[in-house]
Amino acid sequence: MGCDQIEVEDFKVVRQLDKKRTSIYRSFLLRSSNDDNEYVYKSVNITALKKKEKDAMLNEINVLKKLSHANIIEIKNDYYSKDNKFLNIITEYAEEGTLQNKYEEQKKKKEYFDENELLDWFIQILLALKYIHEKNILHRDINPSNIFLMKDMAKLGNFGVAKALSPELNYAKTLVTTPQYLAPEVKEKEKYTCQADIWALGVTFYQLIILDYPFEGSLEEIQTNIEKGNKKPIPKDCKIDKKFIKIINEMMIVDPEKRITLEKILEDSIIKSRIECYLIQQKFNKLEAKKTIRAFEDEEKGRKKKVPIVQEEEKETEVNETEEQKEKKEKEIQERKEKKANYDKCRHMSALIEMVNIKI
Question: What DSSP line would sit under 229-298, residue for residue?
Fold first, then answer.
């Protein structure tokens, strides 16, 4: 497949997502002909990549294939072009963008985020981290740009630099993450563990709370402030629960051995009470959730094709389609989207109960 050609069956191209068309990389928003859900299609000329770049991309695919969680971006398909020059990936599409987008919007408006909204995102990404850490996988690049937002759902994505840890060693050494979110032990090129992800998530949410990056100054000053843990103070007009701020501060303790662990965060009363309140609001029923999850996954299996091929969306409308047929199709599309949203919510809430062992 050439970069000027898209060959994916059962999908139509809605629009190009990347700003520039290059001979190496393109990404498109696709719409499935089967269920009308939208997906991201990435096509990369692997013959033009350096070995390190190619390895990172293949690593992301291999990691994502092993993961199945409501709060992690799911890979739908991956395959090589017929000439083996292009690697194509189809993943879930986050229609509401990233936390970085939300952060920039709020900063421009000079309005702090609502605490409940922050807590919901925080808990959902904790769920994702708990899941990957239990599989001995470090994300290693947690920041607002790699947290994606869908309807009522936050999802962790971009696992290109994820690292699978050996159970015997349980640490990593390679320095690969976004510099502003590097834990002090990573900057010092020391051995590091899952606690480096905890630091990065703490930095991310401190940034969202104060609407600014926690460490200021030149690059050298920022590094010094990170090493000493010198953060900007929480503004007085920022109305965020002190218990939540305490958790975030403990996630940014310089010494990884003194830094709060994921397990301790989950035991905190503000986290448990927020989850309990959410579950009560949803009137969650575990048995009904299991049925919903099973039914949706069985339906998905029936829809899957061997290898997708994408076709450009036709500009002209189908003249033979009646208004009644259009209405029926739109209704089916809406029902399908609602099923997917309900499926994600059921998986998420099931994981919440398991995470904090709340009896419902």
Answer: T-PPPPPTT----HHHHHHHHHHT-SSTTTSPPHHHHHHSHHHHHHHHHHHHHHT--HHHHHHHHHHHHH
| The two three-digit tokens of residue 313, written as one number | 């969306």
For residue 170, what pLDDT is reported? Answer: 46
Residue 273 · residue 247 · CB < 8 Å = no
Q: What is the CATH number assigned to the segment(s) 99-267?
A: 1.10.510.10
Tokens of 158: 């971009």
* Domain at 11-92: CATH architecture: 2-Layer Sandwich (3.30)
| Spatial separation of the C-alpha atoms in residues 251 and 258, rounded to whole Å | 9
Give the 3-state DSSP-derived string for 123-155, with helices as H, strands as E and coil as C: HHHHHHHHHHHHCCEECCCCCHHHEEEECCEEE
Enumerate the β-bridge partners of residue 137. Answer: 164
Q: Which pLDDT belongs to residue 125?
A: 94
**Prediction pTM value:** 0.76
pLDDT recorded at residue 7: 52
- SS3 for 177-245 is CCHHHCCHHHHCCCCECCHHHHHHHHHHHHHHHHCCCCCCCCHHHHHHHHHHCCCCCCCCCCCCCHHHH
Which of 78, 141, 197, 344 is the catalytic position? 141
Q: Which of 42, 51, 21, 50 is nearest to 87 (CA)?
A: 42
pLDDT means per 10 residues, the chain with 360 residues, are 50 76 75 75 82 76 80 84 82 89 95 93 92 86 91 82 46 55 74 85 97 87 87 92 95 94 91 79 70 79 51 47 76 76 78 60
Angle at 345 between CA 344 and CA 350, to 5 degrees: 100
Whether 18 sits among the annotated catalytic residues: the reply is no
Using DSSP's 3-state secondary structure scheme, residue 334 falls into helix
At 203 the pLDDT is 96
Could you tell me the two tokens for 92? 């879930």
What does the pLDDT read at residue 1?
A: 39
**Shortest CA distance to 40 belongs to which of 58, 72, 16?**
16
pLDDT at site 249: 96
- Residue 108's contacts (CB-CB under 8 Å, 6 or more residues apart) are none
CB–CB of 126/71 below 8 Å?
Answer: no
